[in-house]
Write a structure and sequence with these properties.
Elements (H helix, E strand, L loop, with lengths): L2 H14 L3 E3 L23 H4 L9 E9 L15 E10 L4 H13 L11 E6 L9 H9 L7 E4 L1 H4 E2 L6 E12 L16 E14 L5 E14 H8 L12 H10 L5 H19 L8 H19 L7 H11 L5 H4 L1 H32 L7 H11 L3 H10 L2
Parallel strand pairs: 1-2, 4-5
Antiparallel strand pairs: 2-3, 3-9, 4-7, 6-7, 7-8, 8-9
Length: 403
């Protein structure tokens, strides 16, 4: 199933369940000064989750552009990304656990929707702690629709609790849906540590508001917030081991391979992820800089540039960004509208980075002349970064080449 078919089916299904369809909000959050980017679909909805009436009603659904950079060092493995598209549906004080779980199960397993095999689904629920009780209510609901007891696991807060998106705000226990991706039949008992079980959907039950004092106060309005990553779901439905093997990434990676002299899967993936994220940030008129959103954008472009260097790509990264614009602009027209700005800013940042590399490499060579022993000091590496913007990764790379 193509990624955009998943997207279409999701919106059609929830529209048939009386959900108003919302466009994706900006990557720059309006309602939360504690974070730099919109990190989840619920971000633009915070005022409505706290009780303000939504102009579109109590049931809404969307596909939200998101940026998360906490796992940036893991990008390039099978699943980690900085930019992703989050499919979500919300109940703003309307339905709660029963309806949310039933709708999730129907969308996953119905032949009209994703058509996943029921006997390959497993569930996690919140185990409870001093702030909130064990979520046996969700367990009973899953049992009632046919999930066997041995396929339900209870996990602690770090696994089965969502939010708040910043330091304070709406949050609550969640129940997560996993799908068996192994070639053999799934084991009777669910082991969440087994990597062949892949999490594809997350239903959050927003029952609490976390205060600045760290207290969890029950919300007057109980909400449902669900999140299904398009990339991960596409990997499952397309039978791929990695999100980078899906139709969302392959055109970008193929372009990278055409331009490169060397082959390295991790570098190709990092370039694809970082330029996809950078292209969407630039479409929001964020510019590379040394602070806040601009700093994240600069870091992404420069990391992509560094990996392009490892692959011996001579062309500008903007050639790869053009593929992102072509593939994604039918769904996000802002990319086409900002095309000139995106490509020019990316080329400018690349040019600045090349100067940084030239200057930093000369300084690095100078340091080698006075170096005693075979170890570059942390102070030298820090000075190269702090004073000249020379990335630590490149200091390591050059040091390795010089033994």
């Amino acid at each position: 199933m193509k990624s955009r078919d998943i997207q279409k089916k999701f919106l059609e299904f929830f529209n048939s369940k009386q959900h108003a369809i919302l466009p994706s909000a900006s990557l720059i959050p309006e309602n939360d000064p504690t974070v730099l980017f919109t990190t989840a679909g619920m971000h633009p909805l915070v005022p409505f989750l706290l009780g303000q009436p939504h102009p579109q009603g109590k049931r809404v659904a969307s596909i939200q552009k998101c940026i998360r950079t906490g796992d940036i060092e893991d990008v390039g493995d099978e699943t980690h990304l900085t930019f992703f598209e989050m499919l979500g549906n919300w109940s703003l004080g309307d339905y709660f656990k029963k309806e949310a779980i039933e709708m999730s199960f129907e969308f996953l397993t119905s032949k009209k929707c994703l058509g996943l095999e029921k006997n390959k689904i497993a569930i996690t629920c919140f185990a409870g702690d001093k702030n909130a009780p064990k979520d046996t209510e969700s367990e009973k609901l899953w049992l009632s629709i046919g999930i066997p007891k041995e396929r339900i696991a209870f996990l602690p807060k770090e696994d089965n609790w969502w939010g708040p998106a910043g330091t304070t705000g709406p949050c609550g226990p969640d129940t997560e849906m996993f799908y068996w991706t192994g070639n053999n039949s799934p084991p009777k008992k669910f082991n969440p540590q087994d990597k062949q079980w892949v999490e594809i959907w997350n239903d959050v039950f927003m029952q609490y508001n976390k205060t600045s004092e760290g207290k969890y106060i029950p919300l007057k309005q109980q909400n449902v917030d669900t999140g299904m990553g398009l990339e991960r779901t596409a990997a499952v439905l397309q039978g791929k081991n990695s999100v980078y093997e899906t139709d969302l990434f392959q055109p970008i990676i193929k372009k990278t391979q055409v331009l490169s002299k060397n082959k390295d899967a991790r570098s190709e993936r990092i370039i694809a992820d970082h330029l996809r994220a950078g292209t969407f940030m630039l479409a929001e008129k964020i510019q590379p800089s040394n602070n806040e959103q601009g700093y994240v954008l600069r870091r992404l472009i420069r990391r992509a540039s560094r990996h392009a260097r490892l692959l011996e790509i001579q062309s500008s990264l903007s050639e790869i960004a053009q593929v992102v614009i072509k593939e994604y602009s039918p769904y996000y027209p802002e990319l086409n509208k900002s095309k000139k700005f995106i490509l020019e800013e990316m080329e400018k940042e690349e040019s600045k980075f090349r100067l940084t590399l030239e200057k930093g490499t000369k300084l690095f060579e100078r340091e080698l002349q006075i170096l005693k022993g075979k170890t570059i000091s942390g102070k030298t590496a820090f000075d190269l970064y702090q004073s000249y913007g020379f990335p630590l990764e490149i200091t390591k790379e050059l040091a390795l080449k010089k033994n």
